[in-house]
Amino acid sequence: MSPRRFNFAEPLVMLATVLQWLVLATVTGVVVGTGTSAFLNALYALMAVGRTLELVWISVLLPLAGLINGLLLYYGYRVNRTGLKDTLMVAVHTQEGMMPLKTLWIKPVAALVTLASGGSAGKEGPCSHIGASLASAIARGLGLNRELRRRLVACGVSAGFASVFGTPLAGAIYGVEVLAIGRIRHDFLFPAIISGVISFQVSQFWGVPYTFYSALALPAFSQGLFLKTIIIGIFCGLVAWLFVDLTAWVSRVVATLRVNFKLWPPLLPLIGGCVLAGLIWVIPNANDYLGLSLPLMDRALAGEPIAWFGFLWKTLFVAITLGSGFYGGIVTPQFVIGATAGSALAPLLGISPALGASIGLVAVVAAASNTPIAAILMGIELFEGTLGATYVAGAAIAAYLIIGHRSVYPDQLVAYSKTSWMVVRPDMPLGQEKIHLSYGLLRWWRRFQWRDLRDRIRQRKLRK
User: What are the distances in angstroms from CA 218 to CA 278, 355, 380?
Assistant: First the structure.
């Protein structure tokens, strides 16, 4: 093919690609937006009833909800005889965009039970699941090839996320960025943005309510304030580290109990529900840490006084809920934990609690999900552009680095290491990959140890 002919053909191919994704992503956004809106409206109706219940009824409902979750997840998946998993990242990375459709309803119903009963979890997980499952069904119905199916499933995740929080740009980037640490598939971006915007508009049409915030007026840029936001980012990275590891630890403890005592799997979330039911009578203001905990987050973002250890209590409630086998989302809790952690630290640095909470919210999402770009955009969209992008970016990247190679998503791939001092095998799931110190760092460390040992020997000889 001559250069002139290729140059003439390429724009036509790119134009056809844009038109193709305008159609496919729009259809996906409409379908996913409708599906997630049905879930969200049902969730808000059930939670409105749940808010009227007294603690004694919640303590009864939590174990019962745990048993229902266990039964749903244990028996519901028996109808899936395809051998396909319904995990989003597995669907994109190893199943060529294929997801089981018969089990689509299980996770949304389980999430409704979890959140309506007071289980501490999020609402975006079932919506992303609905989006990915519906997008996979659309791709199969249209007979798309495996590469297009992968992209359409990523579109579905982005559309589901955008419809939950009303952040179409952040949702689009999140659905792509979350697939792998250190790599973004740019060819996924255009369809993800289209589907996210359409899904958000469709959800508005179906009456899904959204809340946006206004941060305090920021002074002119100062290096002092920038460094303080970096400190908040570092602190929130450590909080996210605790959140990830505590949730994983609870899961391991529950798995050990199951093996050692030969427990029936549906009993495990029931046990978790019993533990939660006991905690609500011990921890002060336990109502703040049940369900989505959005009122707690709203108070933190408004600059109201928050219990200093509030982020620890919320982390504990979420870890027990999800680690014991309840199903629910894991991003909304990051919002709450980040906002309360930032609000707690900010006064110690001479920053307003509202600004600290806003930055903390973004930083924990950037760290725990390994999605710093999506988190920065989320801060801009949620706060309607009133939150300084420079301050948010510094905190988000700092938190993303501090947490290291950890994630709330064990199936997240590691494309590149976060530091040149550590080595990873590219494109391995985070839950299966072992991170190693680089050869150069090990050599330096051994040399340092040898020099230290030699100095100690000399000191001993001098003493003699």
Answer: 43, 9, 14
Residue 196 has which token pair?
């996210």
- Other beta carbons within 10 angstroms of residue 385's beta carbon come to 12
- Model confidence over 442-451: pLDDT tens digits? 676 667 665 6
CA 64 – CA 4 distance, rounded (Å):
70
85-125 pLDDT tens trace: 888 888 888 888 999 988 999 999 999 999 999 999 999 99
Q: Where in the chain is the domain with CATH 1.10.3080.10?
A: 14-205, 229-402
User: What is the rounded distance in angstroms from the CA atom of residue 369 to the CA atom of residue 448?
Assistant: 35
Q: Which fold has domain 14-205?
A: Clc chloride channel (1.10.3080)
- pTM, two decimal places: 0.91
Residue 176 burial by CB count (10 A; 0-12/13-18/19+): exposed, middle or buried?
Answer: buried
State which CATH number among 1.10.10.1100, 3.20.20.140, 1.10.3080.10, 1.20.120.1200 fits the domain covering 229-402: 1.10.3080.10
